[in-house]
Here is the input.
Amino acid sequence: MLCDSCKKNDATIHIQEIINGQKKTIHLCGECAAKKSGDNPAMEIGGFNIAEMLYNLTEKLNIPGFQQALQQGGIAPAQEKPLVCPACNWTTEGLRNTGRLGCPECYNTFRDILEAALENMHRGKLHVGKKPGSDSSDESPRLMLELMNYQKELEELIQREEYEKAAKVRDMINELKKKIKK
Amino acid sequence: MDNKQKIDSLLKHKVSWLEDSGPDDDIAISSRIRLARNIKGTPFPIAASPDQLNNTRGAIQMAVEKSNCLGASALCFEMEKLSRWERELLLERRLVSSEFIARDGGAALIVKRNESAGIMINEEDHIRMQALSPGFQLDEVWKIISRIDASLEKHLPFAYDSKLGYLTSCPTNVGTGMRASVMLHLPGLVLSSQINAAIQGISKLGLAVRGIFGEGSDNQGNLFQVSNQSTLGESEQQIIERLGGVIKQLISHEKNARLTLIEKNQYFLLDHVGRSYGILRHAYVLSSEEALNSLSGIRIGVDMGMFSTVDLHTVNELFLTIHPAHLQKFAGKELSAEERDIFRASMVRDRLKKFKNT
Here is the structure.
Protein backbone atom coordinates (compact mmCIF):
# COMPACT_ATOMS: atom_id res chain seq x y z
CA MET A 1 0.00 0.00 0.00
CA LEU A 2 1.33 3.44 -0.90
CA CYS A 3 1.63 6.36 1.55
CA ASP A 4 -1.44 8.64 1.44
CA SER A 5 0.70 11.70 1.79
CA CYS A 6 3.64 11.37 -0.65
CA LYS A 7 2.17 8.53 -2.72
CA LYS A 8 5.71 7.29 -3.29
CA ASN A 9 6.86 5.14 -0.38
CA ASP A 10 5.26 2.08 1.11
CA ALA A 11 2.95 2.91 4.00
CA THR A 12 4.20 1.37 7.23
CA ILE A 13 2.15 3.34 9.74
CA HIS A 14 -1.62 3.10 9.84
CA ILE A 15 -3.55 5.64 11.82
CA GLN A 16 -7.17 5.19 12.70
CA GLU A 17 -9.12 8.25 13.68
CA ILE A 18 -12.74 8.86 14.47
CA ILE A 19 -13.84 12.34 13.54
CA ASN A 20 -17.51 13.23 14.07
CA GLY A 21 -18.30 9.57 14.32
CA GLN A 22 -16.67 8.81 10.97
CA LYS A 23 -13.96 6.20 11.15
CA LYS A 24 -11.03 7.10 8.97
CA THR A 25 -7.79 5.29 8.33
CA ILE A 26 -4.68 7.09 7.13
CA HIS A 27 -1.70 5.19 5.76
CA LEU A 28 1.69 6.84 5.95
CA CYS A 29 5.31 6.03 5.33
CA GLY A 30 7.79 6.58 8.15
CA GLU A 31 9.03 9.84 6.68
CA CYS A 32 5.62 11.43 6.21
CA ALA A 33 4.49 10.22 9.62
CA ALA A 34 7.49 11.90 11.21
CA LYS A 35 6.70 15.04 9.21
CA LYS A 36 3.06 14.93 10.21
CA SER A 37 3.91 14.68 13.86
CA GLY A 38 6.30 17.59 13.44
CA ASP A 39 3.51 19.66 11.88
CA ASN A 40 1.61 19.63 15.10
CA PRO A 41 3.73 21.00 17.92
CA ALA A 42 1.04 20.36 20.51
CA MET A 43 1.45 16.64 19.98
CA GLU A 44 4.94 16.47 21.22
CA ILE A 45 5.51 12.77 20.95
CA GLY A 46 4.18 12.46 17.43
CA GLY A 47 0.70 13.00 16.09
CA PHE A 48 0.25 9.43 14.95
CA ASN A 49 0.59 7.98 18.39
CA ILE A 50 -1.82 10.43 19.95
CA ALA A 51 -4.31 9.59 17.25
CA GLU A 52 -3.86 5.91 17.99
CA MET A 53 -4.34 6.57 21.63
CA LEU A 54 -7.47 8.60 21.04
CA TYR A 55 -8.78 5.84 18.84
CA ASN A 56 -8.38 3.53 21.77
CA LEU A 57 -10.06 5.97 24.08
CA THR A 58 -12.98 6.70 21.79
CA GLU A 59 -13.94 3.06 21.75
CA LYS A 60 -14.64 3.36 25.44
CA LEU A 61 -16.40 6.69 25.44
CA ASN A 62 -19.86 7.91 24.69
CA ILE A 63 -19.52 9.67 21.41
CA PRO A 64 -22.88 10.33 19.77
CA GLY A 65 -21.89 9.53 16.21
CA PHE A 66 -19.94 6.49 17.25
CA GLN A 67 -22.83 5.11 19.28
CA GLN A 68 -25.14 5.64 16.37
CA ALA A 69 -22.87 3.65 14.16
CA LEU A 70 -22.82 0.86 16.70
CA GLN A 71 -26.59 0.89 17.05
CA GLN A 72 -27.07 0.75 13.32
CA GLY A 73 -24.87 -2.27 13.40
CA GLY A 74 -27.24 -3.81 15.93
CA ILE A 75 -24.96 -3.44 18.90
CA ALA A 76 -26.40 -1.54 21.82
CA PRO A 77 -23.80 0.44 23.70
CA ALA A 78 -23.50 0.11 27.44
CA GLN A 79 -25.07 3.15 29.09
CA GLU A 80 -22.12 4.64 30.85
CA LYS A 81 -22.50 7.85 32.78
CA PRO A 82 -20.06 10.51 31.66
CA LEU A 83 -17.37 10.79 34.32
CA VAL A 84 -16.48 13.99 36.13
CA CYS A 85 -13.37 14.29 38.28
CA PRO A 86 -14.42 15.27 41.82
CA ALA A 87 -11.18 17.16 42.38
CA CYS A 88 -11.01 19.37 39.29
CA ASN A 89 -14.30 18.84 37.38
CA TRP A 90 -12.47 17.50 34.34
CA THR A 91 -14.75 15.37 32.14
CA THR A 92 -14.46 12.47 29.71
CA GLU A 93 -15.28 15.09 27.09
CA GLY A 94 -12.21 17.10 28.11
CA LEU A 95 -10.08 13.99 28.04
CA ARG A 96 -11.38 13.01 24.62
CA ASN A 97 -10.94 16.46 23.12
CA THR A 98 -7.45 17.15 24.40
CA GLY A 99 -5.98 13.74 25.23
CA ARG A 100 -5.03 15.28 28.57
CA LEU A 101 -6.09 14.99 32.19
CA GLY A 102 -7.07 17.82 34.51
CA CYS A 103 -5.27 16.93 37.74
CA PRO A 104 -3.43 14.08 39.47
CA GLU A 105 -6.73 12.75 40.86
CA CYS A 106 -8.02 12.28 37.28
CA TYR A 107 -5.86 9.15 37.10
CA ASN A 108 -8.27 7.59 39.61
CA THR A 109 -11.41 9.06 38.09
CA PHE A 110 -10.68 7.88 34.56
CA ARG A 111 -8.81 4.72 35.54
CA ASP A 112 -10.90 2.32 33.46
CA ILE A 113 -10.56 4.39 30.31
CA LEU A 114 -6.86 4.96 30.81
CA GLU A 115 -5.92 1.41 31.53
CA ALA A 116 -6.23 0.16 27.97
CA ALA A 117 -4.76 3.34 26.53
CA LEU A 118 -1.73 3.26 28.80
CA GLU A 119 -0.98 -0.31 27.88
CA ASN A 120 -1.09 0.61 24.23
CA MET A 121 1.15 3.66 24.62
CA HIS A 122 3.81 2.29 26.90
CA ARG A 123 5.96 -0.73 27.51
CA GLY A 124 4.15 -1.84 30.62
CA LYS A 125 1.55 -0.76 33.11
CA LEU A 126 3.77 -0.29 36.13
CA HIS A 127 6.27 2.42 36.93
CA VAL A 128 9.69 0.90 37.58
CA GLY A 129 11.80 4.07 37.50
CA LYS A 130 12.92 6.69 39.95
CA LYS A 131 10.85 7.31 43.08
CA PRO A 132 10.74 10.49 45.10
CA GLY A 133 13.29 10.22 47.90
CA SER A 134 11.89 9.54 51.35
CA ASP A 135 13.70 12.31 53.15
CA SER A 136 11.01 12.95 55.73
CA SER A 137 13.26 15.17 57.81
CA ASP A 138 12.74 17.98 55.33
CA GLU A 139 9.43 19.70 56.01
CA SER A 140 9.65 22.01 53.02
CA PRO A 141 7.37 20.03 50.65
CA ARG A 142 4.75 19.78 53.38
CA LEU A 143 4.83 23.54 53.93
CA MET A 144 4.58 24.08 50.19
CA LEU A 145 1.53 21.84 50.00
CA GLU A 146 0.00 23.75 52.90
CA LEU A 147 0.69 26.98 51.07
CA MET A 148 -1.01 25.74 47.91
CA ASN A 149 -4.03 24.65 49.96
CA TYR A 150 -4.32 28.02 51.69
CA GLN A 151 -4.04 29.78 48.35
CA LYS A 152 -6.87 27.65 47.02
CA GLU A 153 -8.93 28.44 50.08
CA LEU A 154 -8.20 32.15 49.72
CA GLU A 155 -9.41 32.10 46.14
CA GLU A 156 -12.68 30.44 47.18
CA LEU A 157 -13.24 32.84 50.09
CA ILE A 158 -12.77 35.82 47.81
CA GLN A 159 -15.21 34.34 45.34
CA ARG A 160 -17.75 33.94 48.14
CA GLU A 161 -16.96 37.49 49.25
CA GLU A 162 -16.01 36.36 52.75
CA TYR A 163 -13.36 39.00 53.07
CA GLU A 164 -12.79 38.79 56.80
CA LYS A 165 -11.88 35.13 56.64
CA ALA A 166 -9.90 35.81 53.47
CA ALA A 167 -7.78 38.39 55.28
CA LYS A 168 -6.92 35.83 57.96
CA VAL A 169 -5.97 33.23 55.36
CA ARG A 170 -3.88 35.82 53.58
CA ASP A 171 -1.96 36.48 56.79
CA MET A 172 -1.35 32.78 57.20
CA ILE A 173 -0.11 32.59 53.61
CA ASN A 174 2.35 35.41 54.25
CA GLU A 175 3.59 33.72 57.42
CA LEU A 176 4.04 30.45 55.55
CA LYS A 177 5.91 32.13 52.71
CA LYS A 178 8.31 33.66 55.20
CA LYS A 179 8.85 30.27 56.81
CA ILE A 180 9.48 28.61 53.43
CA LYS A 181 11.93 31.27 52.30
CA LYS A 182 13.99 30.96 55.50
CA MET B 1 17.48 43.35 35.21
CA ASP B 2 14.74 43.88 32.62
CA ASN B 3 13.90 41.31 29.96
CA LYS B 4 16.00 42.97 27.29
CA GLN B 5 19.04 42.91 29.55
CA LYS B 6 18.36 39.31 30.46
CA ILE B 7 18.22 38.29 26.81
CA ASP B 8 21.37 40.29 26.05
CA SER B 9 23.03 38.45 28.89
CA LEU B 10 22.03 35.09 27.39
CA LEU B 11 23.45 36.12 24.02
CA LYS B 12 26.67 37.38 25.56
CA HIS B 13 27.49 34.22 27.47
CA LYS B 14 28.89 31.02 26.06
CA VAL B 15 26.21 28.44 25.26
CA SER B 16 27.51 25.22 26.69
CA TRP B 17 25.77 22.77 24.32
CA LEU B 18 26.88 24.73 21.23
CA GLU B 19 30.40 25.74 22.07
CA ASP B 20 31.83 23.03 24.26
CA SER B 21 33.04 19.77 22.77
CA GLY B 22 31.24 16.51 23.45
CA PRO B 23 31.58 12.83 22.57
CA ASP B 24 30.86 12.05 18.88
CA ASP B 25 30.14 15.70 18.19
CA ASP B 26 31.02 15.30 14.53
CA ILE B 27 27.62 13.62 14.18
CA ALA B 28 25.75 14.14 17.45
CA ILE B 29 25.10 17.84 18.04
CA SER B 30 23.54 17.62 21.47
CA SER B 31 21.87 15.35 24.02
CA ARG B 32 18.84 16.42 25.98
CA ILE B 33 16.71 14.97 28.76
CA ARG B 34 13.53 16.53 29.96
CA LEU B 35 11.47 15.50 32.99
CA ALA B 36 7.81 16.33 33.59
CA ARG B 37 6.68 16.90 37.17
CA ASN B 38 3.50 18.21 38.78
CA ILE B 39 2.49 19.42 42.20
CA LYS B 40 0.32 17.17 44.33
CA GLY B 41 -3.34 18.12 44.68
CA THR B 42 -3.12 20.93 42.15
CA PRO B 43 -4.90 21.02 38.78
CA PHE B 44 -2.66 20.69 35.73
CA PRO B 45 -2.25 23.92 33.68
CA ILE B 46 -4.96 22.87 31.20
CA ALA B 47 -7.59 22.82 33.97
CA ALA B 48 -6.22 25.57 36.22
CA SER B 49 -7.67 29.04 36.77
CA PRO B 50 -5.42 32.08 36.16
CA ASP B 51 -5.03 32.47 39.93
CA GLN B 52 -4.05 28.83 40.33
CA LEU B 53 -1.49 29.17 37.55
CA ASN B 54 0.04 32.18 39.28
CA ASN B 55 0.08 30.46 42.66
CA THR B 56 1.76 27.39 41.22
CA ARG B 57 4.29 29.54 39.44
CA GLY B 58 5.04 31.43 42.65
CA ALA B 59 5.59 28.23 44.58
CA ILE B 60 7.87 26.74 41.93
CA GLN B 61 9.87 29.96 41.56
CA MET B 62 10.37 29.97 45.31
CA ALA B 63 11.48 26.33 45.31
CA VAL B 64 13.93 26.87 42.44
CA GLU B 65 15.43 29.84 44.19
CA LYS B 66 15.66 28.13 47.54
CA SER B 67 17.12 24.89 46.18
CA ASN B 68 19.58 26.89 44.08
CA CYS B 69 19.31 24.06 41.54
CA LEU B 70 20.04 26.35 38.56
CA GLY B 71 22.72 28.43 40.24
CA ALA B 72 22.65 31.95 41.64
CA SER B 73 22.95 33.60 38.23
CA ALA B 74 19.88 31.84 36.77
CA LEU B 75 17.55 34.03 34.70
CA CYS B 76 13.78 34.04 35.00
CA PHE B 77 11.48 35.06 32.15
CA GLU B 78 7.77 35.50 32.79
CA MET B 79 6.08 34.85 29.46
CA GLU B 80 3.39 37.54 29.66
CA LYS B 81 6.14 40.16 29.87
CA LEU B 82 7.94 39.05 26.70
CA SER B 83 7.28 40.24 23.17
CA ARG B 84 6.55 37.76 20.41
CA TRP B 85 10.11 37.95 19.09
CA GLU B 86 11.68 37.57 22.52
CA ARG B 87 9.67 34.38 22.95
CA GLU B 88 10.69 33.16 19.50
CA LEU B 89 14.31 33.76 20.41
CA LEU B 90 14.01 31.49 23.45
CA LEU B 91 12.40 28.88 21.21
CA GLU B 92 15.23 29.10 18.68
CA ARG B 93 17.68 28.59 21.53
CA ARG B 94 15.78 25.40 22.40
CA LEU B 95 15.00 26.62 25.91
CA VAL B 96 11.23 26.45 25.49
CA SER B 97 8.68 24.60 23.36
CA SER B 98 6.37 26.10 20.77
CA GLU B 99 3.40 25.15 22.94
CA PHE B 100 4.97 27.10 25.77
CA ILE B 101 5.49 30.38 23.94
CA ALA B 102 1.82 30.43 22.95
CA ARG B 103 0.96 30.67 26.64
CA ASP B 104 0.61 33.85 28.63
CA GLY B 105 -0.26 34.32 32.27
CA GLY B 106 1.38 31.94 34.71
CA ALA B 107 4.04 30.60 32.35
CA ALA B 108 7.70 31.23 33.11
CA LEU B 109 11.13 29.99 32.13
CA ILE B 110 14.02 29.81 34.56
CA VAL B 111 17.31 29.04 32.88
CA LYS B 112 20.88 28.50 33.94
CA ARG B 113 23.15 31.24 32.63
CA ASN B 114 25.07 28.91 30.29
CA GLU B 115 21.76 27.43 29.06
CA SER B 116 22.79 23.88 29.99
CA ALA B 117 19.63 23.46 32.08
CA GLY B 118 16.28 25.13 32.50
CA ILE B 119 12.79 24.80 33.88
CA MET B 120 9.57 25.65 32.07
CA ILE B 121 6.82 26.44 34.56
CA ASN B 122 3.22 25.79 33.53
CA GLU B 123 3.81 24.37 30.09
CA GLU B 124 1.67 21.25 29.65
CA ASP B 125 2.81 20.19 33.12
CA HIS B 126 3.61 22.38 36.13
CA ILE B 127 7.29 21.62 35.68
CA ARG B 128 9.27 20.66 32.61
CA MET B 129 12.94 20.62 33.48
CA GLN B 130 15.59 19.98 30.86
CA ALA B 131 19.32 19.49 30.69
CA LEU B 132 21.19 19.91 27.42
CA SER B 133 24.82 18.96 26.71
CA PRO B 134 26.99 18.88 23.59
CA GLY B 135 27.56 15.61 21.70
CA PHE B 136 26.22 12.19 22.57
CA GLN B 137 26.26 11.79 26.35
CA LEU B 138 22.87 10.81 27.69
CA ASP B 139 24.30 9.25 30.86
CA GLU B 140 25.97 12.52 31.84
CA VAL B 141 22.82 14.51 31.04
CA TRP B 142 20.79 12.11 33.15
CA LYS B 143 23.07 12.76 36.12
CA ILE B 144 22.60 16.51 35.73
CA ILE B 145 18.81 16.46 35.42
CA SER B 146 18.46 13.86 38.14
CA ARG B 147 20.32 16.13 40.55
CA ILE B 148 18.06 19.06 39.70
CA ASP B 149 15.01 16.83 40.19
CA ALA B 150 16.28 15.65 43.56
CA SER B 151 16.96 19.14 44.85
CA LEU B 152 13.56 20.45 43.70
CA GLU B 153 11.85 17.49 45.30
CA LYS B 154 13.17 18.64 48.67
CA HIS B 155 11.02 21.73 48.33
CA LEU B 156 8.01 20.67 46.27
CA PRO B 157 5.49 17.87 46.84
CA PHE B 158 5.40 16.08 43.47
CA ALA B 159 2.32 14.19 42.30
CA TYR B 160 3.42 10.56 42.39
CA ASP B 161 1.60 7.24 42.39
CA SER B 162 3.32 4.01 43.42
CA LYS B 163 1.91 2.16 40.39
CA LEU B 164 1.88 4.87 37.73
CA GLY B 165 4.92 6.87 38.83
CA TYR B 166 5.01 10.62 38.24
CA LEU B 167 1.57 11.81 37.18
CA THR B 168 1.45 14.06 34.12
CA SER B 169 -1.22 15.98 32.27
CA CYS B 170 -0.86 13.82 29.17
CA PRO B 171 -0.95 10.07 29.84
CA THR B 172 1.77 9.64 27.21
CA ASN B 173 4.28 11.05 29.73
CA VAL B 174 3.19 9.28 32.90
CA GLY B 175 5.70 7.11 34.78
CA THR B 176 9.20 8.49 34.44
CA GLY B 177 7.93 11.70 32.82
CA MET B 178 11.13 11.47 30.83
CA ARG B 179 11.84 12.35 27.23
CA ALA B 180 15.45 11.80 26.21
CA SER B 181 16.64 12.89 22.79
CA VAL B 182 19.77 13.27 20.72
CA MET B 183 20.09 15.70 17.84
CA LEU B 184 21.99 14.11 14.97
CA HIS B 185 23.45 15.54 11.80
CA LEU B 186 22.99 12.84 9.16
CA PRO B 187 23.96 14.19 5.73
CA GLY B 188 25.67 10.90 4.80
CA LEU B 189 22.46 8.92 5.19
CA VAL B 190 20.47 11.60 3.34
CA LEU B 191 22.93 11.94 0.43
CA SER B 192 23.09 8.17 0.01
CA SER B 193 19.27 7.86 0.20
CA GLN B 194 19.36 5.57 3.23
CA ILE B 195 17.55 7.94 5.57
CA ASN B 196 14.03 6.64 4.82
CA ALA B 197 14.94 3.12 5.78
CA ALA B 198 16.66 4.39 8.91
CA ILE B 199 13.64 6.43 9.99
CA GLN B 200 11.29 3.54 9.35
CA GLY B 201 13.49 1.25 11.41
CA ILE B 202 13.62 3.72 14.30
CA SER B 203 9.83 4.16 14.29
CA LYS B 204 9.40 0.42 14.51
CA LEU B 205 11.55 0.35 17.63
CA GLY B 206 9.15 2.66 19.42
CA LEU B 207 11.34 5.72 19.07
CA ALA B 208 10.41 9.01 17.40
CA VAL B 209 12.34 10.96 14.76
CA ARG B 210 11.68 14.65 14.21
CA GLY B 211 13.20 17.70 12.52
CA ILE B 212 15.32 20.32 14.22
CA PHE B 213 12.63 22.36 15.97
CA GLY B 214 9.76 19.92 15.68
CA GLU B 215 7.26 22.23 14.10
CA GLY B 216 7.10 21.26 10.43
CA SER B 217 10.78 21.94 9.93
CA ASP B 218 11.22 18.67 8.01
CA ASN B 219 14.79 17.60 7.95
CA GLN B 220 16.18 21.02 7.15
CA GLY B 221 19.91 21.02 7.52
CA ASN B 222 19.84 17.22 7.69
CA LEU B 223 19.26 17.49 11.42
CA PHE B 224 17.20 14.83 13.16
CA GLN B 225 16.08 14.43 16.74
CA VAL B 226 15.64 10.88 17.94
CA SER B 227 13.76 10.37 21.19
CA ASN B 228 11.94 7.77 23.29
CA GLN B 229 8.14 7.57 23.06
CA SER B 230 7.06 5.50 26.03
CA THR B 231 7.65 6.54 29.61
CA LEU B 232 6.01 3.78 31.63
CA GLY B 233 7.15 0.20 32.26
CA GLU B 234 10.87 0.88 31.87
CA SER B 235 13.27 2.63 34.21
CA GLU B 236 15.06 5.81 33.14
CA GLN B 237 18.28 3.83 32.71
CA GLN B 238 16.56 1.23 30.53
CA ILE B 239 15.06 3.94 28.32
CA ILE B 240 18.41 5.69 28.01
CA GLU B 241 20.16 2.42 27.22
CA ARG B 242 17.62 1.46 24.56
CA LEU B 243 17.71 4.89 22.94
CA GLY B 244 21.48 5.06 23.27
CA GLY B 245 21.88 1.71 21.54
CA VAL B 246 19.92 2.94 18.53
CA ILE B 247 21.84 6.24 18.44
CA LYS B 248 25.16 4.35 18.47
CA GLN B 249 24.02 2.33 15.47
CA LEU B 250 22.83 5.43 13.64
CA ILE B 251 26.17 7.13 14.25
CA SER B 252 28.04 4.14 12.89
CA HIS B 253 25.74 3.93 9.82
CA GLU B 254 26.32 7.63 9.19
CA LYS B 255 30.09 7.15 9.44
CA ASN B 256 29.94 4.26 6.97
CA ALA B 257 27.76 6.26 4.60
CA ARG B 258 30.27 9.12 4.65
CA LEU B 259 33.20 6.77 4.00
CA THR B 260 31.36 5.11 1.14
CA LEU B 261 30.64 8.53 -0.35
CA ILE B 262 34.35 9.41 -0.22
CA GLU B 263 35.40 6.11 -1.73
CA LYS B 264 32.79 5.76 -4.44
CA ASN B 265 31.43 9.24 -5.04
CA GLN B 266 34.26 11.52 -4.16
CA TYR B 267 33.43 14.25 -6.69
CA PHE B 268 29.78 14.23 -5.79
CA LEU B 269 30.70 14.85 -2.15
CA LEU B 270 33.34 17.48 -2.93
CA ASP B 271 30.87 19.23 -5.19
CA HIS B 272 28.23 19.19 -2.46
CA VAL B 273 30.59 20.70 0.09
CA GLY B 274 32.07 23.19 -2.36
CA ARG B 275 28.68 24.45 -3.56
CA SER B 276 27.49 24.83 0.01
CA TYR B 277 30.54 26.88 0.83
CA GLY B 278 30.11 28.95 -2.32
CA ILE B 279 26.51 29.80 -1.45
CA LEU B 280 27.29 30.81 2.10
CA ARG B 281 30.37 32.85 1.15
CA HIS B 282 28.83 34.66 -1.80
CA ALA B 283 25.03 34.77 -1.58
CA TYR B 284 23.32 38.12 -1.06
CA VAL B 285 19.85 36.69 -0.46
CA LEU B 286 19.66 33.60 1.72
CA SER B 287 16.53 31.87 2.96
CA SER B 288 16.76 29.98 6.23
CA GLU B 289 16.16 26.69 4.44
CA GLU B 290 18.98 27.30 1.99
CA ALA B 291 21.22 28.48 4.80
CA LEU B 292 20.55 25.38 6.91
CA ASN B 293 21.12 23.02 4.01
CA SER B 294 24.34 24.79 3.01
CA LEU B 295 25.55 24.83 6.61
CA SER B 296 24.96 21.11 6.65
CA GLY B 297 27.16 20.85 3.57
CA ILE B 298 29.96 22.80 5.22
CA ARG B 299 29.64 20.81 8.43
CA ILE B 300 30.23 17.51 6.68
CA GLY B 301 33.28 19.08 5.02
CA VAL B 302 34.61 20.25 8.40
CA ASP B 303 33.91 16.86 10.00
CA MET B 304 35.86 15.12 7.28
CA GLY B 305 38.81 17.48 7.45
CA MET B 306 38.21 19.16 4.08
CA PHE B 307 38.55 22.60 5.64
CA SER B 308 41.58 23.09 7.78
CA THR B 309 40.53 26.24 9.57
CA VAL B 310 36.75 26.49 9.68
CA ASP B 311 35.81 25.32 13.15
CA LEU B 312 32.80 23.28 14.10
CA HIS B 313 31.64 25.81 16.67
CA THR B 314 31.29 28.60 14.12
CA VAL B 315 29.13 26.30 12.03
CA ASN B 316 27.12 25.16 15.07
CA GLU B 317 26.58 28.73 16.12
CA LEU B 318 25.36 29.70 12.65
CA PHE B 319 22.87 26.81 12.78
CA LEU B 320 21.31 28.81 15.63
CA THR B 321 21.82 32.44 14.69
CA ILE B 322 20.42 32.31 11.15
CA HIS B 323 16.90 31.94 12.57
CA PRO B 324 14.51 34.92 12.34
CA ALA B 325 14.34 36.03 15.98
CA HIS B 326 18.13 35.96 16.32
CA LEU B 327 18.60 37.91 13.08
CA GLN B 328 16.22 40.60 14.27
CA LYS B 329 17.95 40.77 17.61
CA PHE B 330 21.28 41.36 15.84
CA ALA B 331 19.71 43.85 13.43
CA GLY B 332 18.17 45.63 16.39
CA LYS B 333 14.80 45.98 14.64
CA GLU B 334 11.97 44.02 13.13
CA LEU B 335 12.70 42.86 9.58
CA SER B 336 10.38 41.71 6.81
CA ALA B 337 10.98 38.23 5.41
CA GLU B 338 12.86 39.73 2.42
CA GLU B 339 14.98 41.93 4.65
CA ARG B 340 15.79 38.93 6.82
CA ASP B 341 17.07 36.94 3.82
CA ILE B 342 19.39 39.82 2.91
CA PHE B 343 20.55 40.34 6.49
CA ARG B 344 21.10 36.60 6.92
CA ALA B 345 23.29 36.44 3.81
CA SER B 346 25.38 39.35 4.96
CA MET B 347 25.83 37.95 8.49
CA VAL B 348 26.88 34.54 7.16
CA ARG B 349 29.33 36.07 4.63
CA ASP B 350 30.81 38.07 7.44
CA ARG B 351 31.17 35.15 9.83
CA LEU B 352 32.89 33.03 7.17
CA LYS B 353 35.24 35.76 6.01
CA LYS B 354 37.92 34.76 8.48
CA PHE B 355 38.17 31.37 6.79
CA LYS B 356 38.93 32.90 3.39
CA ASN B 357 42.07 30.95 2.62
CA THR B 358 40.85 27.45 3.22
Remarks:
- The CA atoms of residues 26 and 271 of chain B lie 20 Å apart.
